[in-house]
Design goal:
Elements lengths: L1 H4 L1 H22 L3 H57 L4 E5 L4 E4 L1 H4 L19 H13 L3 E7 L2 E12 L2 E11 L1 H35 L7 H32 L7 E4 L1 H11 L1 H6 L3 E6 L5 E4 H18 L4 E8 L3 E8 L21 H6 L6 H11 L3 E7 L3 E9 L5
Parallel strand pairs: 7-9
Antiparallel strand pairs: 1-2, 1-5, 3-4, 4-5, 6-8, 9-10, 10-12, 11-12
Helix pairs in contact: 2-3, 6-7, 7-12, 8-10, 10-12
Bound molecules: adenosine-5'-diphosphate (ADP).
């Protein structure tokens, strides 16, 4: 390019040098033909050299242009790949330029807008929900990293606004959002679990401690109270044992240290065996038990787990339901074995349907605490059913019936 711009100067130079050579030729020899000959030789060589240089340089220029074209093609390709990546990333993402225009946004971000059918968007556009608008503004106005948790449509998002700099000059902000609703919920559940576990363990310990303090007083001399306290201490100690055992069992289940020994099982026999364990309570409560089965097919499952599942469900009927009838049915659908436990007891209110499977949740705390349950039974049942790849549901109408439906997949032994 530089050479081309100065082409005229080079040709002028050649003419100038030729004229000087002509004068020199005249001075050295008087022969005009000799001077003209020298000039012609010089001009021809000069033009040839200039032509060659021209060729080399234009070739170089062409190479540079081609390289630039390939670089910009590659850049375009990378940009297109980046756009595709951003578009399909499950995290809402948006790129704001230095004038506040939204240059790039992905599908997940579009879902957060009040009206997604807008091409042009700026950080002040009406269809950006308020908390999001404030976040975009903060990142844009401060020109520095901003981290915030915002709530949008009942979901919690952890948002990071990262300034994009070029040669130390602010060019815009990249905002990445991560849905942390589940994470926060798990954290809340974990905290509640620790608080509930401490509370459940503390209550019997406090009761035992109080009674032991009275019993060990120097002046204590009351045989009837002593007998009563000893019985209560026994009950509370057993309750502590149940809670601790259940907690240990759950922790083993969660850390997957319990191995399921799956083998073909006759569900009817397992249920019948569990009913035998509760014979005393069933007789005491005068519960009429009926088992119906339409399926003979064995189920591949872990016998100990099924026994724990059925024992807990039968135990609850005896403990909580004031039932006079318990109907257990064993049926098949195409992919599952369906076992139902239906009693005609007090029932469960609809709002408690999901909560009864949570750890330590009891419908009627005071009444159920007195029965000695740990509030962990149904949680253990759910974990065991899910460890088999199955599911458990509850259907109930208060003061009419409660039906627990356990569905276990028909698996091949693994
Ligand atoms: P626990 O370990 O104390 O027995 P569960 O987790 O087994 O506790 O039960 C949780 C709650 O579900 C209890 O508060 C109980 O009131 C309720 N429940 C469970 N089964 C029945 C039932 N068959 N009828 C009525 N309420 C029930």
């Amino acid at each position: 390019m530089y050479y081309k711009q100065n082409k005229r100067a080079i040709y002028n130079g050649l003419i100038g040098v030729s004229f000087v050579l002509f004068l020199l030729g005249q001075v050295i020899s008087d022969n005009i033909l000799f001077s003209i000959f020298v000039i012609i030789i010089f001009v021809v060589c000069g033009i040839a050299i200039v032509h060659k240089m021209n060729q080399i340089l234009s070739q170089k220029e062409q190479e540079i242009v081609l390289e630039k074209q390939s670089q910009s093609r590659q850049f375009g390709l990378v940009l297109a790949q980046l756009r595709t990546l951003i578009t399909y990333l499950p995290y809402p993402m948006v790129l704001v330029d230095q004038t506040g225009n939204i240059e790039l946004r992905n599908d997940s971000f579009e879902l957060l807008l009040n009206d997604a059918n807008t091409d042009e968007l700026t950080i002040t556009s009406k269809n950006i929900p308020f908390p999001l608008k404030r976040l975009l503004n903060d990142g844009y106005l401060n020109e520095e990293s901003v981290t915030k948790v915002i709530t949008l449509n009942t979901l919690e998002y952890q948002c990071i606004s990262i300034p994009v700099l070029q040669k130390n000059r602010y060019k815009g902000s990249l905002i990445v959002m991560h849905d942390i609703t589940k994470l926060l919920y798990q954290e809340k559940v974990q905290k509640r679990f620790v608080a509930d576990a401490s509370h459940e363990l503390k209550s019997p310990i406090t009761a035992i401690k109080g009674m032991v303090e009275i019993l060990t007083r120097q002046d204590f001399d009351d045989d009837i109270t002593e007998q009563d306290f000893m019985e209560q201490i026994k009950v509370e100690t057993e309750r502590l044992e149940v809670i601790v055992n259940n907690l240990l069992f759950l922790s083993k289940l969660n850390s997957k240290t319990i191995l399921l020994n799956k083998q073909p099982l006759d569900i009817y026999s397992v249920v019948a065996e569990c009913l035998r364990t509760f014979k005393l309570q069933i007789n005491e409560k005068k519960i009429d038990v009926e088992i119906t089965k339409t399926s003979q097919e064995p189920l591949i499952a872990d016998a100990a787990s099924l026994t724990t599942i059925f024992n807990n469900l039968i135990d609850n009927v005896c403990m909580y339901s004031e039932a006079s009838k318990l109907v257990i049915s064993i049926d098949d659908n195409t992919q599952e074995k369906v076992i139902k436990f239906c009693d005609n007891g007090i029932g469960i209110h609809e709002e408690d349907f999901t909560r009864i499977f949570e750890r330590f949740y009891r419908v009627d705390d005071a009444r159920n605490r007195a029965t000695g349950g740990s509030g962990l039974g149904l949680n253990i049942v759910k974990e065991l059913v899910e460890a088999h790849g199955g599911s458990i549901e509850v259907e109930s109408v208060q003061n009419e019936f409660t039906r627990f439906i356990v569905k276990l997949p028909k698996l091949t032994k693994s």
